[in-house]
Amino acid sequence: MYAGMPANDFSAIEKVKKIFKNRPDFLEHGSQERIKKGEHVQFSATPYFFFVESGYLKYKFDNHYEHKYSVLTGPGDSIVFPTIDNELNNEPIGIALTDMVLWKVEYAFFQEVTAMEDPSNSLLIDHLIRSRRHLYINTIQSGLTPTQRALFNMYRMMDIGFHTSASQVELPEFVTLALLADLANINPSYLSTSLRPLHESGLLLSNKRPWVITDVAKFIALLKEEKIPLLFTKS
Fold first, then answer.
1. Which Gene3D superfamilies does this UniProt record tie to the protein (predicted)?
2. Contact (Cβ atoms closer than 8 angstroms) between residue 55 and residue 103
């Protein structure tokens, strides 16, 4: 039913490992860093290539600007790509939603290695494709009502949730009312009101984590009724 994690998420991770980890001088210019859940990560004014191997991070484009939507990044995402971002006068920051493994590579070294090992610029192309997907998601949200945005973001979480059966899905452990409200750019109390009909019908169980959508087919039917774009649904 769902597209799930794109196949190139795994290929991008393996490609980064292959390109950099086998270099004998890698540890002089880069590292794999463990980031604990809840930690803030600064990305501003750093000439580094950042790459997510595992875990999820909420990315904010500028710490001093209350932009409309945060970005959810996960395995395979390049968070900062200096060749694109180094002309921007912003201060991006992230907060780890789970424990993470993050790659940090000096950009000069990144350029040197990829010039030899990735002459087709596949990592850059992959970054552009993923950035376009994030932009498309936020563009879609800008045209939805608050209630539609709430449902749309629950749907997004289903895509990376755990399907306990053909009809039931657990949303990721990090899903909370506050996070969904942030991603949807709505007030948490409004979000709670918007989700009340789902609670009352038993379609959503959120009294403890992980949240559970008890009937996927009914939830998808509700999204269609609300005219919410189904980006990840195959059928």
1. Jelly Rolls (2.60.120.10)
2. no
The HSE-up count of residue 218 (CA atoms within 13 Å, CB side) is 12
The last residue of one of the domains, among 107, 126, 141, is: 141
Same domain, 42 and 128: yes
Tell which residue, 12, 143, 146, has the closest CA to residue 73: 12
- Predicted TM-score (pTM) of the model is 0.83
**Judgement on whether residues 32 and 76 belong to the same structural domain of the protein:** yes
For residue 177, give its domain range: 145-226
Q: Which of 8-17, 19-28, 144-153 has the lowest mean pLDDT?
A: 8-17
Tokens of 158: 């289903």
Per-residue HEC secondary structure of the chain comes to CECCCCHHHHHHHHHHHHHHHCCCCHHHHEEEEEECCCCEEECCCCCEEEEEEECCEEEECCCCCCCCCCEEECCCCEEECHHHHCCCCCCCEEEECCCEEEEEEEHHHHHHHHHHHCCCCHHHHHHHHHHHHHHHHHHHHHCCCHHHHHHHHHHHHHHCCEECCCCCEECCCCCCHHHHHHHHCCCHHHHHHHHHHHHHHCCEECCCCCCEECCHHHHHHHHHHCCCCCCCECC
CATH label of the domain that carries residue 54: 2.60.120.10
Tokens of 105: 């590579």
Let me know if residue 231 belongs to a domain. no
